[in-house]
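A reminder from the course coordinator: this example appears on the midterm review sheet, so study it carefully.

Given structure:
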């Protein structure tokens, strides 16, 4: 671990970044790699890191059309959790949360993991029953869960609207204490630096425009800066999964939608946890800078645009005010959006595809950021061994053809709405 004296910290501060070294290399592309990973977000970089660390496969390139973390990795609300209950999802997301818990130590890079806990609000007796069932399944699998009634929630979060005229009456909540938030750009930087140190080439500003073929098999990629050959090509491109798969003649059961997020002006410390609000599809936390971070529902039209529309803005902040009346005069600082690749059952795909030489990691819906480390870990296993790990064994592409759905209705911010 690098150690700095107080004097060196002051010297670096006064010099700006003029004498900083590169966090990762900017190499020229080799003519051939064992694996080319398309997509330089969290999932692609994590896959490269775990391929090198866990399987000794270091002749790997991560090919990114823009800059690292410029897609969904830097365009989310940073929430991590493992409160899933469907077979196929439960242990996968728990693996991810366990990896989050030790990620900073593993990468020797501060990912700012904050396990501040998450409350999923219940607004009816039926939702309390559903939350009890979810919590029991979680606890049976060794995952932490607590169920709180209305009185306990009034004690813990007194600033919520507990009045008799509340738009969504609060009956209680299910709580996961190990859930929380992580600094999203630090995740991309940490995995990039870790992969680079293990020998992975990170190639930015290089868009994949097609594939190289031999005897019906993919043997590399065509890019905006030349061809790169590879034994295996792996897609980690989130909302653009269907476009990259279509280039290979593969049609995916995915729709791409815009999902907006927002941050307010800085505010005094108020919310020391993550709150999800099932009745109105709202989730909220407070950043270290004091801004309140809000997320809501999808813009319900297909789009690759990273902006979103005003109806979702109105709905999100009306919902926030209904939950926490004290926010009514708070000003919005900025807004952004990511492109969600939504599968038909709300669960992801991590698999070897029917196209020889092509592997797919996509269909993350709302769950992409929180899944980052387990996604990379399991995808690396699948690529290296040509078979899934038990934690991603259900995330096949052919499940849609077979009619086998992992229908986790809690995959978004409403895990009690079964």
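Designed residues:
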């Amino acid at each position: 671990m690098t150690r700095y004296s107080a004097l060196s910290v002051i010297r670096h501060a006064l010099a700006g970044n003029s004498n900083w070294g590169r966090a990762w290399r900017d190499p020229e592309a080799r003519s051939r790699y064992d694996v080319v990973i398309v997509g330089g977000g969290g999932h692609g970089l994590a896959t490269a890191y775990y391929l090198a660390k866990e399987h000794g496969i270091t002749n790997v390139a991560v090919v990114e059309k823009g800059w690292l973390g410029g897609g969904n990795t830097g365009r989310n609300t940073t929430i991590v959790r493992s409160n899933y209950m469907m077979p196929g999802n439960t242990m996968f997301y728990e693996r991810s949360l366990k990896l989050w818990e030790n990620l900073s130590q593993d990468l020797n890079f501060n990912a700012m993991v904050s396990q501040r806990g998450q409350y999923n609000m219940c607004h009816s007796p039926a939702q309390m029953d559903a939350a009890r069932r979810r919590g029991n399944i979680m606890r049976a699998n060794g995952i932490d869960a607590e169920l709180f009634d209305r009185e306990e929630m009034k004690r813990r979060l007194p600033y919520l609207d507990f009045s008799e005229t509340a738009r969504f009456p609060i009956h209680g909540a299910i709580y996961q204490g190990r859930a929380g938030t992580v600094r999203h750009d630090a995740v991309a930087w940490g995995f990039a630096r870790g992969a680079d140190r293990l020998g992975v080439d990170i190639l930015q500003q290089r868009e994949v425009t097609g594939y190289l073929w031999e005897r019906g098999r993919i043997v590399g990629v065509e890019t905006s800066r030349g061809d790169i050959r590879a034994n295996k090509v792996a897609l980690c491109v989130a909302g653009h999964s269907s476009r990259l798969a279509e280039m290979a003649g593969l049609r995916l059961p995915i729709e791409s939608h815009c999902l907006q997020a927002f941050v307010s002006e800085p505010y005094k410390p108020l919310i020391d946890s993550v709150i999800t609000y099932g009745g109105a599809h709202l989730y909220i936390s407070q950043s270290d800078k004091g801004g309140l971070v809000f997320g809501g529902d999808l813009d319900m039209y297909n789009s690759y645009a990273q902006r979103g529309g005003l109806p979702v803005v109105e709905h999100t902040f009306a919902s926030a005010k209904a939950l926490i009346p004290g926010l009514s005069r708070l000003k919005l600082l900025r807004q952004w959006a990511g492109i969600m690749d939504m599968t038909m059952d709300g669960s992801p795909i991590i698999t070897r595809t029917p196209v020889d030489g092509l592997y797919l990691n996509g269909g993350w819906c709302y769950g992409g950021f929180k899944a980052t480390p387990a996604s990379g870990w399991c995808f690396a296993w699948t690529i290296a061994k040509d078979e899934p790990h038990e934690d991603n064994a259900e995330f096949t592409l052919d499940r849609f053809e077979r009619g086998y759905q992992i229908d986790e209705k809690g995959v978004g911010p409403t895990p009690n709405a079964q």
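The longest strand covers residues 254-266. Confidence is low (pLDDT under 50) at residues 410-418.
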